[in-house]
Fold this sequence. Notes:
By secondary structure, the chain is an alpha/beta fold. The protein has one domain (4-213): P-loop containing nucleotide triphosphate hydrolases (Rossmann fold, 3-Layer(aba) Sandwich), CATH 3.40.50.300. The chain is 37% helix and 21% strand. The protein is built from 8 helices and 10 strands. Helix 1 crosses helix 2 and helix 5 (136-149) runs parallel beside helix 6. The termini are close together.
Amino acid sequence: MSGVLIVSGTDTDIGKTVVAAGLAAALGAHYWKPIQAGTADGTDSGRAAALGVPRDHVLREGYRLTLPASPHLAFREEGLEADLARLALPEPRPLIVEGAGGLMVPIRRDPPWMMIDQFARWQAPVLLVTRTALGTINHSLLSVEALRARAIPVAGLLFVGEAHAENESVIPALAGVPHVGRLPLLDPLDARTLAGAIAAHVDLPHLRAAMDSAA
């Protein structure tokens, strides 16, 4: 899907929102979180706006669910069923889409429908956000294999955390996926520091090209 980039991760709370917001701001793109599960501490859309995405570029979620849980459970607890038609990609381009949780998080239990199934339906490239720390090799390689098994294009790997030369080298080499940068942990984390880090550490031309070349 031309003009669209999906941001997913190897785990929850890995930094997808920070990455997605930083990319949307840097690329002049719209930001969309199709499913927000958990609202007590605010929403990822609200955080994206606080991190530099213009408010008129932050699109309303397809679903906003109260419970901070896997989407399938949050839907069930609120007495709702996921209508996949509401998860169709919105029209504005360019568009950064932030997935909920990791690739295999279920949107629906019966019949099964996971985030990765939704990504396959969209057929837009996925940027996989992964940690630099111990355990990342296994998680990252499994995630890339799952994407490839469903013919989902992988735009690249973006690492988050302290530098780890071996992990940052071996994962892209074994996966055959581009290394598009490493975002350090930012303190303070705000729109200014995020914009600077994205500009300094992320291969934005590669990601623009991946979005533009998508079928």
